[in-house]
Design goal:
Order of helices and strands: HEEEEEEEEEEE
Shape: globular
CATH architecture: Beta Barrel
Strand content: over 45%
Number of domains: 1
Number of strands: 11
Largest sheet: 11 strands, mixed, barrel
Structural class: mainly beta
CATH class: Mainly Beta
Distance between the termini: 27 Å
């Protein structure tokens, strides 16, 4: 099983740069941490840190800090109210300089989960109110993810799994289409508290695209 995991991870590392070159877009690197704390049977505290780089070896593009308080309507349905702070380091067109752009964000979301055989399915609907520098914007996001266990029939402790998602972003003003993120990765569930993933994501903006390697840690406690 360890040999299989190594082969899948190695294949992913080989395929990712090839896809990036084929689309003629930069290869970036995202380091992501997602945490969830169950306060009681109904309430949960979500928190995350995302460090996003322009290139694979590290040049900060964006730092994202997000948190929120959730309430479970049922075992598979959760609503959440949250806040995010995002610091973007944007390059000035035709120059080598970068300018920092701060953003404060309030968001509301609804998550619902399903099972179809061995496949775990999650839908997330998120509505954001964004204060970007001196501009106010709103955005809707729809996220669909699939997890499929490989080494065991179910996603339990010490299980290798495939992960995939697609997320669509829609603006309230200007261009309706904001971006689309398509991701596929290989994950390992260590236990009920911890999961790890490595994957490839393409972010499409309508006229251009960016490619990222994602290294993700999930912690539930």
């Amino acid at each position: 099983m360890r040999y299989l995991a190594f082969r899948l991870a190695f294949s992913l590392m080989i395929v990712t740069p090839s896809l990036c070159l084929a689309q003629n877009s930069d290869l970036g690197n995202w380091l992501l941490y997602f945490g969830n704390k169950n306060i009681n049977e109904k309430l949960n505290w979500h928190h995350e840190v995302q460090y996003r780089n322009y290139n694979a070896i590290g040049e900060m593009e964006q730092l994202l800090l997000r948190t929120g308080l959730g309430y479970s309507l049922t075992q598979n349905n959760n609503v959440l109210l949250g806040y995010g702070f995002i610091q973007s380091e944007n390059y000035v067109p035709t120059q080598e300089d970068k300018v920092g752009v701060p953003e404060h964000r309030i968001y509301q979301q609804f998550i619902t989960k399903q099972k179809a055989g061995r496949v775990s399915i999650q839908h997330r609907y998120r509505f954001e109110q964004r204060w970007v520098a001196e501009d106010f914007k709103m955005r809707f996001r729809y996220f669909l993810s699939l997890n499929v266990p490989l080494s065991k029939p179910n996603l339990e402790d010490n299980t290798l799994y495939l992960s995939a998602y697609n997320e669509l972003f829609v603006n309230n003003k200007g261009e309706l289409f904001d971006r689309n993120r398509l991701y596929s990765g290989l994950g390992y569930k260590l236990n009920k508290q911890v999961k790890f993933e490595i994957g490839y994501m393409n972010q499409y903006f309508g006229t251009s695209s960016r490619d990222q390697i994602n290294l993700i840690t999930f912690v539930n406690f």
